[in-house]
From TrEMBL:
Source organism (scientific name): Staphylococcus nepalensis
Highest classification ranks of the organism: Bacteria, Bacillati, Bacillota, Bacilli, Bacillales
PANTHER family: SPERMIDINE/PUTRESCINE IMPORT ATP-BINDING PROTEIN POTA, SPERMIDINE_PUTRESCINE IMPORT ATP-BINDING PROTEIN POTA
SMART domains on file: AAA
The keyword rRNA-binding belongs to this UniProt entry's keyword annotation: no
InterPro entries hit by this protein: AAA+_ATPase, ABC_SmlMolc_Importer, ABC_transporter-like_ATP-bd, P-loop_NTPase
Signal peptide (from-to): none
Protein's UniProt keywords contain Transferase: no
UniProt keywords, alphabetically: ATP-binding, Nucleotide-binding, Transport
Listed GO MF terms: ATP binding; ATP hydrolysis activity
Pfam family membership, one: ABC_tran
Protein name: Molybdenum ABC transporter ATP-binding protein
All residue ranges annotated as the ABC transporter domain in the record: 1-182
Length: 183
């Protein structure tokens, strides 16, 4: 497995690509395959349901449910288990499980959202511009954390970024999107 960065200017379609992979947005013409499993093939009318894709998606604004505790957010799509307990410990958020999202810093909210994305042991992890809104120290810590999870879990990661630095420091391969005027 590898870590892939999708980089490009704002509005070029980086998030749209992730949304197509995860199944939140229909593609006009696409073939999407993860771990030998076809998720989308517009030519053959294949479109696997979102909940059956086994993907983890960390949204740009984390999308934590404000009326649920940290623990409830993490277990929203997964049953409480030893895996969840170990994951919370690994991400250093066990002590936050009874807190509500409004009381969390940006870095803590990100780790909670990451735990939720990993709660079902996904085949692929998608990160949408996850480091851009964090201060430098938290950004470096978050990048190290995701890299450590990648090394331990051996799960492919695709992340989108505006930052050449993040792409070059973090990714094994970089995909650059650019806007091309229609002819």
């Amino acid at each position: 497995p590898k870590i892939y960065a999708i980089r490009g200017p704002a509005g070029v379609g980086k998030t749209t690509v992730l949304n197509m992979i995860v199944g939140l947005r229909a593609a006009d013409n696409a073939y999407i395959k993860v771990n030998e499993r076809v998720l989308t093939d517009t030519q053959s009318s294949v479109n696997v349901k979102i909940q059956e894709r086994h993907l983890g998606y960390l949204f740009q604004d984390y999308q934590l449910f404000p009326n649920m505790t940290v623990f409830q957010n993490i277990t929203f799509m997964a049953q409480p288990s030893e895996h969840i307990t170990a994951l919370m410990h690994q991400l250093n958020i066990s002590y936050l499980q009874k807190q509500f999202p409004a009381r969390l810093s940006g870095g803590k909210a990100q780790r909670v959202a990451l735990a939720r994305a990993l709660s079902r042991r996904p085949d692929l992890l998608l990160l949408d511009v996850q480091f851009s809104s964090l201060d430098d120290a938290t950004k470096e810590e978050s990048m190290r954390l995701v890299k450590r999870l990648f090394d331990e879990w051996q799960i492919p990661i695709i992340f989108v970024t505006h930052s050449n630095y993040e792409a070059e420091q973090f990714a094994d391969e970089i995909i650059t999107l650019s806007s091309v005027p229609a002819e």
